[in-house]
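Translate sequence into structure tokens.
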Amino acid sequence: MFYKKPAKDHILLCKGHAQLARLPKRFSLCVWNLHKCKDTGWREEFALHCKQSDLFLTQEAMFLPSQEDCFANCGLEWTAAVSFFSFLRHAPIGVATGSRAPALRADYRANVYEPFLKTPKMTLCTVYPTERGPLLVVNLHAINFTGHKPFSLNMASAAQLLEGFDGPALVAGDFNVWNKHRLQLMRQTASQLQLTEMVFEPDNRSRFFGQKLDFVFTRGLKLLQAQATPSHASDHNPLSAVLELQ
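Result follows.
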């Protein structure tokens, strides 16, 4: 084990403060892998996306004490699921979902591990109040350097978080679908859950081995606009969208 994992009762963190009692019928979304907050210019771009977003899903978020203000004072309430602590600075790293409305509940899954680093891959589930009832949000950072079976288990684990929930749902993140088998399995899982894949225009999503890595799937939400724009502040380009509850 190269990295220290948090104790079970310290996996879920909460930072920042919500500004609204509930999300509006029409809301803005950002999905962005922050690459452990280590690239030049990430603070400024992160602050801009926070200002423009009602809902913000991040992967590879790092919570250093020197960066506490970035998450605490951006107008969003953050729920994070910590995967591990950084090797040198011992800072929590994981997935985090920010919202202008407070989370009604939070849950996570972490039953697959990267084979070399032995770090758990986190899937975070949060539920938010909206003008049309509760919205379920799943923030996923899928397992990367493995074969088909662990990835299949990762998708099945994420799907469990939607079981029994009939309302509007949003599933997004870094799916690490760098080959056609992974892509097919991801889309099969989404279809079984009656989720619709979001289309981006322009579509500048980051790629690996020619395959797009970041995706957004929705149910009970109308897409008004979506784009993926280039960025030098991470190794992933941010995804932005405007959605409306049906």
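Note: The mean pLDDT is 95.
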